[in-house]
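My current task is to audit a protein record that another person submitted. What it holds is a sequence and that sequence's fold in token form. Thanks in advance; the entry in question is below.
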Amino acid sequence: MPGSKSSTMRIDLIPEISEVPLSERPQAANLSHAGIARDVPIASFRSPAAAAATAAAPARPQSQGSEEGYGELFHNLYDAALVTDLHGRIRDVNARATNQFGYTPAQFSHLTLEDVVAGADSELIHALFENLRRERFSLLQANCVRSDGSQFPAEVTVSLLTRSTPHLCFLIRDETRRRTTDEMLRTEHNALQNASDGIVVINMNTQIEYANPATAAIWGYSAASDLISQPLGILFLTPEDSYAIINSLSGENYQTTGVAIARRSTGENFRVEIHAACNRDSDGNVIGAVISFTDLTERDRVEIAENDALAVREKVRTLSELHKAAVLTFTDLNTLMSDIASHAVNNPDKEQSQRIKTAYETLTGLEALITDTDDILDKILATSAESDLPGNKV
């Protein structure tokens, strides 16, 4: 009954360490050779060296495909196709197989499945045959071997041909391009997921279709999924900024940059630097935008601290200049008071002489204090100058 042949056995023959990176593997349980029954003896496969030594082997039988009504279809299949007997000996191939593997039909006649599918052996043939007696298809993930020894990843679909004697038909599809594309997409996805900048993809209605974890972290959401289907304006203090981004990506302007005030989920405002570019479908039509956000909070904090430090340095420098002027003034005053004090000794007015002496002593003390202050200011300015050196900046 059709319903009884709905399942597909999946077998992965690709080793854990492969020359070809794998982006995915079949989810079904792998078939272990240790678990395959051995009650039906199957002849051992011949290696390529042994096959080459069989120079007197009979020529490959002519395809019986035309007799059974499948010949034209078989030889015009898009996938490479091999037909083997239950010992794994190759009995028929189509044109795509000769192109893909680099063997001629005559050379194929001396090969077995083991020569062209890495990891295939008699136990695999037996397991496939037993499964195909119950199910319609079996599926292999394997590395196939070309005539020059190079390998390529392939998805192999196996079916049972009920000819005069049972045969197995292997349809082999080269997966190199698909797996390379999958790996590239996986790499790009990982780059987006692990980026430190927030990245979102929006449609033409400014709805968020994708947000990476950094976006959720920057805006204070528990997960990036919380932002999916939300309007882009939810990220800004002024929601209309989202439409300004879309409108800026018009005409021949396919990229734009700018700075906007954003608002975290906690209500805190902060600045973000924006880089936006058009997002296109496979036909080149603009379907939205890809936007990256750089949180400027730390940069602003450093800039404010630097500006504050610069302001303080300017005030200290101004004070130092005023102080130096004061030192000169006090020096002149001290000289004058010294002259006055020297003459006051002979002044008969003792009270006035005492006041002059006291004023002189006070002025001398102030001059000493100003000198100490001058040293302090010079040290502050010297420290500030060292902090301005490139290697000492934050």
User: Anything to note?
Assistant: The chain has twelve helices and eleven strands.
